[in-house]
Write a structure and sequence with these properties.
InterPro entries: Sig_transdc_resp-reg_C-effctor, TF_LuxR_autoind-bd_dom, TF_LuxR_autoind-bd_dom_sf, Tscrpt_reg_LuxR_C, WH-like_DNA-bd_sf
CATH architecture of the largest domain: 2-Layer Sandwich
GO molecular function: DNA binding
Keywords: DNA-binding, Transcription, Transcription regulation
Protein name: LuxR family transcriptional regulator
Shape: elongated
Low-confidence stretches: none
Mean pLDDT: 90
Pfam families: Autoind_bind, GerE
CATH class of the largest domain: Alpha Beta
CATH topology of the largest domain: Beta-Lactamase
Amino acid sequence: MLEEINTIGRRFDARDTLDGRIDEAFVTMQRLGFDALIYDYTPGALDIGGQMMLPSLLKLRNVCDEMHDCWYGQQYFRIDPVQRLAMQTSVPFFWNYDPDAETKIRRFLTEETKPVSDFLHDHGMTAGVTVPIHMPRGDYATVTGIRHGARRDFERDAMRAIADFSLLAQVFHEAAYTLFDRDVLNASRIRLTERERECLRYSSYGLSAKEISRIIDRSVPTVVMHLNAAAKKLGAKNRTQAVVRAAQYRLLDGDVPYKL
């Protein structure tokens, strides 16, 4: 498997759509003993209310459509023990919803997370391997492989394959990420105007409202108005927090048109 990573990378590149590259990952991971794939991407750990942010991308292979509805519509994602652990580690891990199993998600198995446990038990998805992928700007993804109706010997098989699966997940995500569109990358659903974004972007470089006003040829009160409006949309207490949150939600991406 390790010797085939370059070949697998070329297979991903040969697929020119996101779904095509996900299909390619699914085919490859089946050779490692998994028969279901879950792939999600989240642009930040927490939303402006302090809750786990819902993913902007959730792709399933050989998993019932009902899971998508539950993890989004009923927001199971926010209480998913696997996701809670994935936020705190960069190490691939095996998980098991059997209450008697020695598993890293055990401390997250509470009454609050019972809806997730019940759903996975009902659909025979009680054990798997998840690879957390954390990126420099705070966004992250998880690639999860599941075997339906897994017996106790699945853990042994999964742990034998975890290194190869982790490498596959990293290569796959790198290939998939290049095809994300702006809506996927900006999942905060916060809509800043172009002028608000511009003022925040200059503010992130340490410029004062007066300095920004000279650059964009607007009055200081107008700049302050844009900055205050952006801060309100972001739920920020001040301009500094507004810049941090806007950066976290990837709202400041783009070139600065003025040479600083």
